[in-house]
UniProtKB/TrEMBL annotation:
Residues 240-380 form the Thiolase C-terminal domain. It comes from Advenella mandrilli. This is Thiolase domain-containing protein. InterPro entries: Thiolase, Thiolase-like, Thiolase_C_2.
Amino acid sequence: MKIKDKAYIAGICEHPIRRAGELTTAQLHADVALGALEDAGLTLDDVDAYFCGADAPGLGGLTMAEYLGLRNLKHMDTTETGGSSYLLHVRHAAQAIAVGHCSVALITMADRPLAKKQGTALSGVDRSSMPDLPFTVGVPGMPVYGYAMVARRHMYEFGTTPEQLAWVKVAASHHAQYNPHALRQEVVTVEDVLQSPMVADPLHRLDCCVMTDGGGAVVVVSPEVAARLNKPKVKIIGTGEATKHRDGGFMDISYSAGKWSGERAFAEAGISVDDIHYASLYDSFTITVIMQLEDLGFCRKGEGGKFVQDGNLISGQGRLAFNTDGGGLCSNHPGNKGGMTKLLEAVRQCRGQAHPLLQVKNREFVLAHATGAMMSSYHSAGTIILQAE
């Protein structure tokens, strides 16, 4: 099912908090849901499809439908793939709209790991019966170890350096200084990154994303609904999703599932990477960004380190502006679900509503991409290409 020109993103909302305190997960979901609908000029009564991941409390979609008072639902999707879930939700919502199953789809995400003192666990996901669990019990910090392995392999294969990894963080920090809601607003240098404590060789503390409470929401609508709304029109023109796993031990960790999701999204959109001047890229770790730049085709495999060095990701300075809100590395990474915030900043850029000092001039086509689970093992990738009208 091709969805080019068949759905629009009409509303977005990012929760301003980074520490939830006494706010419940359901309240966070409700806050961003109402915010996104208000942004679109719609109400809860207009919603006929609801999408959420495992972070939604209770029975997920059913629980939140009652909590929000959604009475007109025709369609529901609770796909869970970690950080990429919400890009897949946008794709699935556009597909449902294209075949007439719904016309206004609400997608929400919220988590509060700081308030729950949960650490890096994936909210709502029961790992107790996972077949690989016996091999990882007692190993703390699993995500960072997995990405450290990817980074070390990239260094071995292609000569990537710690300094090049650090430039990703430096670029994100240059953007975060203009975001009043960013958890970390200070600008850092390559030396700051390299001098921060080593977490898992070769990744330092500043190579890792922040951990926050919060959330976000997106409203996807049919062309007919979009036409009657007095809002900037952001059209979904290309989507892709893909899955990659360990394949019984024969996994090549030098590339990710983004290689396939990106190819599918660009093919559907009918454009190339040369048409993209802004990209929201999942930034759980600095190596994650370098891998995605290569796998999506912004540079050749093995040249991601060279691509990012000397500030090439800094808006107004480099070749490709990325994560102009500060991204997960500096601003907001609610739990282990950073994909939602990638969508939100991509829409802001497409609308021309990013910070004035960071807004890209050519914003006709923008891209959002995320990975879910661990790039060193099984993971899912989602790619969304948007067009401003």
